[in-house]
Amino acid sequence: MSAEVTVNDNLQVTLPLIGTLKVGGLTPPTIEKLISQRLKEGQYLLNPEVSIQVRQVRSQMMSVLGEVQKPGRFVIAGKMTILDALATAGGLTQRADSNAILIRRSVLKGSESQRQEITVSMGQILDSTKDDIDLELKNDDVVFVAQQKLFYVFGEVRKPGAYPMEPELNVMRVLSISGGVTDRGSMKRIRIHRKDLDQKIREVTPDLGYPVLGGDVIYVDERLF
Description:
The protein is of the alpha+beta class. It has four helices and twelve strands; from the N terminus they run ββαββαββαβββαβββ. A five-stranded mixed beta sheet has the order 4-3-7-5-6.
């Protein structure tokens, strides 16, 4: 009644007579007792002796992609978090966004799987006072770091140029970041050029509380004399 079986993605094995048995998280001696108990309960054997040997351990793997120095697929060595994964991939590039995205596939009943995306702020996982923020990685997890999103300010501002995005950014904050409007500029003559879903550029005349998105070009025009 010997059998060589593989633990599937649901952490189960299929054995002769017994059928499907969940073994995830159990030690070999515990599994031996469980199989022996099932054989007795099924009245297949009176006094079964069960021995288990682990023939091969399948490495748990994760991937780190995007704006890291050495993107690729890596072995999960013990307990690894998102921060550990980024360090394994050589750290971030200068163009890296301030957020990391953890992409995880959870196996549901049967063969169905569900894709889950969890966004984690770099500032949060670097905060040593918040131990519960940095998530522990599982097999086949993907950590993705996108390129930093920028907005652009031109026209009658004191410091025109490209700037990194901030959470809940609006026109008032943009003017503050770019040094404010010059003496020739008009707070009432501000335009935003933005690409829509069809990649067409549309022009918006915003108020000071209008939200600014990544890729927006904000132009401050001169006063009308």
